[in-house]
Amino acid sequence: MKKTANSLQNQLMLLLACCTFSLPNFSNEISVVTEYLAPYQVKNNDGSLGGFSTEVIHALFKITNDTPNIRVLPWARAYATAKHNKNTMIFSIAKTKSRLANFHWIGDLIYEEYYFWGLKSNVTLKSLSLEQLKQYRVATSRSSNEYEYLIEQQFDHIYPVVNEDQRTKMLYRNRIDIIIETEITLKALTKKLDLDFSQLNKLLFIDGLDTTLSIAFNINSDPSLIKTYQQAFLQLEKSGQLKAIQIKWNIPSTH
What we know:
D-Maltodextrin-Binding Protein, domain 2; 2 domains; 5-stranded mixed sheet; 3-stranded antiparallel sheet
């Protein structure tokens, strides 16, 4: 009987071992696209991606138990990739009216107000209306919400650029006259580029361009995937984890 019991025990252990090693991996690799945009997505000294929004993304994926395959691209490429590829996530994307029907929205990261900015040394840039600003040279990233706004408002002298770094340097070198940006991003950009933020003038609040930066998925993504990430984002909010990350990065709460 002892021999039989030992034999049965050995068979049971072998069966359990086989079952353990054959368990499927339920973790999915999710395609994620973004751009460098301080302080939301920043390049760390070791080459890795950091920043407020990036930390939120990693917290989100920890809840879903998926693996993010994050690619940092120029904004126009990131936007086109997310718009045309199923089950692709994009962050941080401005949640504009024109984009609402083109994506599934997972959660809002920050409310932003946009302004026109120019150098204080450019004395002609003072107390100007929107119509008067149209005579000046302005640079912005192609396919950005700022670019869409400038086209809609029929600005004549638009210089599309690859990223915000390039545009900001152009302003300080007097290759353009004005840019559109939020104060929190422009402060982070000038600090990163070793430029003096105090040289800038906040020229005009852009009514109607204020929006939220958000996390979104391609419109044709699997409904179950969208539901999973929307619920995970709600969990981030309710647990207080999102608030803690905002405080850590000195990011104001969404409006």
